[in-house]
Amino acid sequence: MNSELNEEAVEMNEEDDDEDEEEPRERDDDEGEEGFSVLSDLPVEMSERRPTCRRCCRPVKVCLCPYLPPRPLDVSTCLYIVQHPAEESRVLRTVPLLAACLPPGQCKVFIGRRFSEERYPELAAVCRDPRSLLLYPGATADNLEDLSTDFTATPHNVILIDGTWSQAKDMFLRNALLRLPRQVQLRSAPSSQYVIRTQPTNMCVSTLECAAVTLSIMEKNHSIQEVLLKPLQALCSFQLQHGAQIHHSKEHLIKNGQYNKIMPKNKRKIRRMQKLISNQNI
Ligand SMILES: [Zn+2]
C-alpha cells in the first residue's frame, strides 16, 4: 500500500483524541513522539511537503475531486465559517471540501478564537445583518425547519462555528458578535448524523454535515445534501479502508510495549464513520 495513504490513515486515527480540550495538539505529546520516531526513520527527502490539489486541498494522491460536483452548486445562501485555529491543522479538514462545492466567495472562513468588531469588520457586518443566522444549538435556538422565512426569496447568511464541542462553546460564549444573529439549530438532522450534539470530538465532520442539511433546507433542494456529503462519504470510506491496516500496526506496537494509546477510542471513531457511510437517507 502506498505510504502516503497509510500516513493519512495514521493521522486520521490520531485525530480522535481531542475531547473537551482547548488545545488538542498540546495533549497529543505521545503521538507527536511517535510521529517523530516514524519520521526519523525516513530518508530526508521524504519529509518534503506533499503536492496538494488546489481544488480540494487534499494531497494529490488522495484527491477527492472526482467526488465533487463538476460545477459549483447553485445556491444563494452564503456560509461564514468561524473556525478555531486547531481545525486548520487537522488532516481531515472538511471545510475546503465544502468550499470547493460552492460558488466562489459563498463559503468564507475566519480563523481565530476571538473576533472583535475592529479586527473583523466583514464578519461584524454579517453578524449585524438581519438576514444572518447562527447555526448553534441551545435553549434559545429556533429550529431552522420551523421558520416561516422563505430563504429562496431573500438570500441569507449562515454562520457556523468549526471546532470541537468545547472550542465551539467557548467561541460562542466569548464572542459577543456571534450572539448577535438569530440562533438556529437543526431539528431534522438524525442522531447518527448530528455529530455536533452527540459526537463532540468530531466537529470537523459535523460542520460539513450541518452545512449540507442547512443548505438543503434553506435552498429547498434535498439534492444539495447528497452532493455535499458525497466527498465526505468518500473520505470516510477511504480512511476506514486504510485505517484498518494502521490498526494492526498499532496493535503490534502495543504488543511490543511501544504504544500506550487506549485503543477503544479508535474503534469508536471507526464505528462513527461506518455509520456515516451506511446511512444513505440523511
Ligand atoms: Zn482535488
From TrEMBL:
<keyword id="KW-0819">tRNA processing</keyword>
<keyword id="KW-0949">S-adenosyl-L-methionine</keyword>
<protein>
    <recommendedName>
        <fullName>tRNA-uridine aminocarboxypropyltransferase</fullName>
        <ecNumber>2.5.1.25</ecNumber>
    </recommendedName>
</protein>
<feature type="domain" description="DTW">
    <location>
        <begin position="49"/>
        <end position="244"/>
    </location>
</feature>
<feature type="region of interest" description="Disordered">
    <location>
        <begin position="1"/>
        <end position="41"/>
    </location>
</feature>
<dbReference type="GO" id="GO:0008033">
    <property type="term" value="P:tRNA processing"/>
</dbReference>
<dbReference type="Pfam" id="PF03942">
    <property type="entry name" value="DTW"/>
</dbReference>
<comment type="similarity">
    <text>Belongs to the TDD superfamily. DTWD2 family.</text>
</comment>
<dbReference type="InterPro" id="IPR039262">
    <property type="entry name" value="DTWD2/TAPT"/>
</dbReference>
<keyword id="KW-0808">Transferase</keyword>
<dbReference type="GO" id="GO:0016432">
    <property type="term" value="F:tRNA-uridine aminocarboxypropyltransferase activity"/>
</dbReference>
<feature type="compositionally biased region" description="Acidic residues">
    <location>
        <begin position="1"/>
        <end position="34"/>
    </location>
</feature>
<dbReference type="InterPro" id="IPR005636">
    <property type="entry name" value="DTW"/>
</dbReference>
